[in-house]
Amino acid sequence: MEYVKGQVLVSVAGHDKGELLTVTDFDGKRVMVCNGKGRRLEKPKAKNPKHLEKTQFVLDEHSMATNRSIRKQLNKIANPGG
To answer: Which end of the chain is more exposed for a tag (fewer CB within 10 A), N or C?
Structure first.
């Protein structure tokens, strides 16, 4: 399964189960993810791809620039009405 930088995922296992995350890197075995808050761009988490579920959303390069912009975009996706 291939991942692209900025792709939004849902964690289906682990302490972050149910959280929205975004891909920062992919090396074939592990997906590096962050959410801009507990898991920041400076220190992304390596997750097993089988513990992640893809969504239809992909953040653009501008949205991936800072932790704040990542949090803002993920919050918009999680709460589309508010």
So the answer is: C
DSSP 10-68: EE-SSTTTT-EEEEEEE-SS-EEEE-SSSS-TTSPEEE-GGGEEEEEEE--TTTTSSHH
Q: Record the pTM.
A: 0.91
Domain residues of the chain, as ranges? 7-78
18, two tokens? 């149910």
In this structure, which CATH number among 2.30.30.30, 2.60.40.3600, 2.30.330.10, 2.40.10.10 belongs to the domain 7-78?
Answer: 2.30.30.30
